[in-house]
């Protein structure tokens, strides 16, 4: 009987392990074999061997967390109707988590031309949950969220390309392997403090990364074709690095618009006057709405970007598009603007919905038929 039990356990363990892809250790990058558009070594070199003056300066403005009736007012005020100097709509990226998100407003953001990316279903604490997350955990958080986001916001699944893990907590190989398995294209979780001047350009994980590991565990496996969009740290007024703007410690007084505008420009110019690695303005909306001086400074900065001939406010996905097929700025400005197919939203209010992870009841604003229960891990569509 003990022998039979042991055999059964061995089979079950074998099946569990089989669910996770093998993780071949990544080798040092071979520049002769790793070539665009599908592969790029981690490097501060400008893609296409362009000179800085010929390289478009991309600005990626991103917002984390849920989309709701409060923060949508800020997004409408500062982002809508913006146009870059090449007459293409300016864009931004929203890393959206599930709980308390209004999917009708996500649909609105998508139809305004902004990029919708993933920030997990649960966004749960403690942070150690993410540190120790397995392939199965990350599949439930991000693989399933891709289906969930597409379903409830009624946006095309293939338009959802990026992820950012809560708390910028890396999970080793797991998240990247889930991305490869589910058709997700890039990660924007990984901060760098060592590659800021010059900045680290996006690269793939076909080969071993040279990026510093600030929030371990970082990936060690070869995961071909999956892109890393490094979060190049800012420097606060005392020179300390900060990956998110609202995480900078030594900053100008929040009411001082002029000082904040100069603070933003100082960090921007490190990119613009350097190797023109994408400049990330990574922030949570609450920080902007809480400090009007910061918001006014941001608006001034975005106005400046939109007026420059060689700087472009784009989504994170558009940065990867360019890196895959780099062209000089004089050709980039002549390219057709990125297009997308708008979608409708069958506006439906659902609730109260019971949940399995808490005793709370929830209401949901979605773009289709109400779920049976509140969607959560292991039941992303609430069936």
Automatic annotation (TrEMBL):
<dbReference type="Pfam" id="PF01522">
    <property type="entry name" value="Polysacc_deac_1"/>
</dbReference>
<feature type="signal peptide">
    <location>
        <begin position="1"/>
        <end position="18"/>
    </location>
</feature>
<feature type="domain" description="NodB homology">
    <location>
        <begin position="55"/>
        <end position="186"/>
    </location>
</feature>
<keyword id="KW-0732">Signal</keyword>
<dbReference type="InterPro" id="IPR052740">
    <property type="entry name" value="CE4"/>
</dbReference>
<dbReference type="GO" id="GO:0016810">
    <property type="term" value="F:hydrolase activity, acting on carbon-nitrogen (but not peptide) bonds"/>
</dbReference>
<protein>
    <recommendedName>
        <fullName>NodB homology domain-containing protein</fullName>
    </recommendedName>
</protein>
<dbReference type="InterPro" id="IPR011330">
    <property type="entry name" value="Glyco_hydro/deAcase_b/a-brl"/>
</dbReference>
<dbReference type="InterPro" id="IPR002509">
    <property type="entry name" value="NODB_dom"/>
</dbReference>
<dbReference type="GO" id="GO:0005975">
    <property type="term" value="P:carbohydrate metabolic process"/>
</dbReference>
């Amino acid at each position: 009987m003990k022998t039979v039990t042991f055999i059964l356990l061995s089979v079950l363990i074998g099946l569990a392990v089989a669910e996770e892809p093998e993780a071949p250790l990544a080798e040092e990058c071979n520049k002769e074999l790793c070539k665009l558009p599908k592969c790029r070594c981690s490097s501060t070199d400008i893609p296409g061997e362009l000179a800085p003056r010929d390289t478009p300066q991309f600005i990626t403005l991103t917002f984390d967390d849920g989309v709701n009736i409060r923060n949508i007012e800020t997004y409408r005020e500062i982002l809508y109707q913006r146009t870059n100097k090449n007459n293409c709509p300016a864009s931004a990226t929203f890393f959206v988590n599930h709980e308390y998100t209004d999917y009708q407003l996500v649909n609105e953001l998508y139809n305004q031309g902004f990029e919708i990316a993933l920030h997990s279903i649960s966004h749960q604490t403690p942070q150690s949950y993410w540190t120790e997350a397995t392939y199965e955990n990350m599949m439930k958080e991000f693989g399933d969220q891709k289906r969930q986001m597409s379903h409830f916001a009624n946006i095309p699944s293939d338009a959802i390309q990026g992820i950012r893990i809560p708390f910028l907590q890396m999970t080793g190989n797991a998240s990247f392997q889930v991305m490869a398995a589910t058709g997700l294209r890039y990660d924007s979780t990984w901060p760098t403090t060592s590659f800021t001047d010059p900045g680290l350009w996006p690269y793939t994980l076909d080969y071993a990364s040279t990026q510093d590991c600030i929030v371990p565990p970082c990936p060690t496996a070869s995961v071909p074709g999956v892109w890393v969009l490094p979060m190049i740290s800012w420097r606060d007024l005392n020179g300390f690095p900060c990956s998110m703007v609202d995480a900078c410690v030594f900053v100008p007084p929040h009411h001082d618009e002029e000082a904040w505008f100069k603070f933003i420009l100082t960090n921007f110019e490190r990119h613009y006057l350097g190797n023109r690695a994408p400049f990330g303005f990574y922030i949570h909306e609450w920080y902007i709405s809480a400090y009007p001086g910061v918001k006014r400074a941001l608006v001034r900065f975005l106005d400046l970007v939109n007026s420059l001939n060689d700087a472009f406010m784009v989504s994170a996905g558009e940065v990867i598009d360019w890196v895959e097929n780099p062209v000089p700025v004089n050709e980039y400005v002549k390219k057709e603007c990125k297009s997308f197919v708008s979608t409708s939203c069958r506006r439906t209010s659902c609730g109260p919905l019971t949940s399995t992870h808490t005793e709370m009841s929830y209401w949901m604003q979605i773009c289709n038929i109400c779920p049976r229960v509140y969607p959560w891990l292991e039941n992303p569509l609430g069936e």
